[in-house]
UniProtKB/TrEMBL annotation:
Gene3D superfamilies: Winged helix-like DNA-binding domain superfamily/Winged helix DNA-binding domain. This is Replication initiator protein. GO terms for biological process: DNA replication initiation. GO terms for molecular function: DNA-directed DNA polymerase activity. Belongs to the initiator RepB protein family. It comes from the Bacteria. Transmembrane segments: none annotated. Residues 25-174 form the Initiator Rep protein WH1 domain.
Length: 465
């Protein structure tokens, strides 16, 4: 996988990569999240227009869209009707309206405007070679002179996508690529894609939009995703997208990966947060809020050092299935990890004298309080693990039990999954993979709770040390 240095990006947003010429698309995040719907030919005209905008343009121009470029870029077959489709797509785009949020001194407003204007095309379609079109002036803040809060990506990621919805999903997830997770309400996503009336039933929306996009992105783009459904009762009301680098496509050399200039939802005003997010962009579950909490509690330098240390261990081959959880545990246990820095905003608690616990008292914590905590620990371990690993462990459970027993243990009578029971069992499987015994975890838990080290004797009893 080849990475791009900033100095190779010229004002035309064109990058020379070997013998190819790569075009980068830039659009404001607000436009990415706007409410509109294109068909595939409208999207192709729109994409070609975006490719013709120069980075330093201060105003829109009349953009000439050549038919042979469209056929070449989108790998289409010339069948004698291509210009007709191109012309009709441009005219529909000229009539298309969009709703986009905008900031004003008096608060947020919604802009309702046309996208394109001034379509000029040939009457005689058989000999026609191009058409002219321009953007509506109201689109300027979302496409020109972008300094922050914008999305930029290699246009070749979307050229082979045959669904405009797949392209929209790609852009919405690409915004959050460095974070690795995006949560959207189903109604919110339907409104963005303008399909509230088209797909009123969630089942149709899921299959024709979400699952279709999932297949398309994995096949053609530099990212892929899995998703979880958020339910209110039996109804699916939200979706959690887990965004994963598509290493096969990135490493093929056919697509350009741009970590230095990739879009981020974090503004450059907080360089510390941006740096921490960049270093953890491949970690599942990490968000701006999470790293802000780490920095505020433990200090930037301490968090930075622990993240770098964790990444180094991963690069050296250590299996850390949940880097985020590992960092949290390391920050919370400086005595064990050698992380000598103390939290900068740690709540002061009275210093306890070292208690002396009898074997009977310690066994109470083992069988009572710790047992309850351990179940929650296993559930969180399963929830925060990599999705691929999670499903692998579920498959191991299915292979271990008969189908009837598996359903009795992990399914409710109505056919829904008993997530609490399943996650606990998956957590046990993960512990087996990590070869970390329950006794070792209890010793760590006991130390964190009472600041007392305990040892298990051969008799099976525990004693304080």
């Amino acid at each position: 996988m080849k990475k791009l240095k900033k100095d190779k990006l010229d004002n035309n947003q064109t990058i020379k990569k070997d013998t190819d010429v790569v075009k980068l698309i830039r659009k404001a995040n607000r436009l990415v999240e706007g409410k509109y719907r294109f068909d595939i030919w409208e999207m192709r005209v729109f994409t070609k227009m975006l490719m013709k905008i120069h980075r330093d343009d201060e105003d829109f121009k009349v953009y000439r869209i050549y038919l042979h470029e469209v056929i070449q870029d989108f790998e289409l077959q010339e069948d004698g009707h291509s210009y007709k489709f191109l012309k009709q797509g441009a005219e529909r785009l000229g009539r298309r309206e969009i709703r986009v949020l905008m900031d004003t001194p008096d608060g947020k407003m919604e802009l309702f405007t046309h996208i394109a204007t001034g379509v000029k095309s040939f009457v005689e379609e058989k000999t026609a070679k191009y058409l002219d079109i321009s953007f509506h002036p109201d689109m300027k803040p979302y496409l020109l002179q972008l300094q922050s809060q914008f999305l930029m990506y290699d246009v070749r990621n979307i050229l082979k996508l045959q669904s405009s919805f797949s392209i929209r999903i790609y852009e919405l997830l690409k915004q959050y690529e460095t974070i690795g997770k995006r949560t959207l309400k189903v109604q919110e996503l339907k409104e963005m894609l303008d399909v509230v009336d088209k797909y009123p039933l969630y089942g149709n929306f899921k299959q024709r939009v979400i699952v279709k996009a999932q297949e398309d992105l994995e096949k053609f783009t530099d990212i892929k995703f899995t998703f979880d459904e958020v339910k209110s009762g039996r109804a699916v009301t939200g979706l959690v997208f887990w965004i994963i680098p598509n290493r096969e496509k990135q490493d093929s050399g056919n697509l350009l990966y741009l970590p230095e200039v990739a879009s981020t939802i974090v503004e450059d005003t907080d360089q510390e947060i941006s740096q921490l997010l960049t270093l953890t962009q491949r970690w599942e579950g990490v968000s701006k809020t999470v790293v802000e909490q780490w920095r505020n509690v433990y200090g930037f330098e301490t968090v930075l050092a622990q993240i770098k240390k964790t990444n180094k261990q991963i690069s050296e081959g250590k299996k850390i299935h949940n880097p985020m959880g590992f960092v949290v545990w390391s920050l919370q246990n400086p005595e064990i990890t050698g992380n000598v820095a103390e939290p900068v905003s740690k709540i002061e608690t009275p210093v306890k004298e070292e208690p002396k616990y009898t074997s009977k008292q310690i066994n109470f914590y083992w069988n009572g309080e710790f047992a309850n905590w351990f179940v929650i620990y296993l559930q969180n371990l399963a929830i925060n693990c990599e999705k691929v690993l999670y499903h692998k462990k579920v498959d191991e459970l299915r292979a271990t039990y008969s189908e009837k027993l598996f359903n009795n243990l992990f399914m409710f009578n109505d056919g829904s999954v008993n997530e609490e029971s399943l996650n606990s069992s998956v957590g046990i499987k993960l512990l087996e993979t990590e070869q970390k015994s329950k006794e070792n975890i209890f010793q760590e838990w006991f130390w964190n709770k009472f600041q007392v080290r305990i040892l298990q004797q051969r008799s099976g009893d525990w004693k304080a040390q």
